[in-house]
Amino acid sequence: MSFGKHERLLSDKFEIIWSDKEIITRFFSDPLGVLYHMKQTGVNGIPGKAWTKSDLQNFKEDYQDLFGTDLGVPLTYQPLYFIAKPKK
Predict the structure, then answer these.
(1) pLDDT tens digits, residue range 6-52?
(2) Strand 80-86 with 14-21, pairing
(3) 3-state DSSP helix/strand/coil percent for the chain, to nearest 5?
(4) Residue (of 35, 2, 36) closest to 19 by Cα position
(5) Coil vs helix vs strand at 69
(6) Residue whose C-alpha is closest to residue 75's, from 34, 30, 32, 17
(7) CA distances from 20 to 26, 41, 54, 72, 78 (A)
(8) pTM score > 0.90 for this model?
(9) What's the CA gap between 56 and 14, in Å, rounded?
(10) How far apart are CA 69 and CA 72, in angstroms?
């Protein structure tokens, strides 16, 4: 969902005092570091599926091949920030 759509949904019931967004990219030494970080932050893009050893190996190889850089492998996310108060 886009930033603008979030603002529109909130503005139905809230007065938005401040809003912002940013793009954050973190680099990890390997794809397992990406998965560990996602687990620690409560993010999970694979609902209800347990990975097999071959799934994990394929992920590691594919992620490294597709996204590997001299800095490591990236994980990019875009947090949205809102300060809002209920409309009267």
Answers:
(1) 999 999 999 999 999 999 999 999 999 998 998 888 876 666 678 89
(2) antiparallel
(3) 40, 30, 30
(4) 2
(5) strand
(6) 34
(7) 20, 21, 40, 28, 10
(8) no
(9) 43
(10) 5
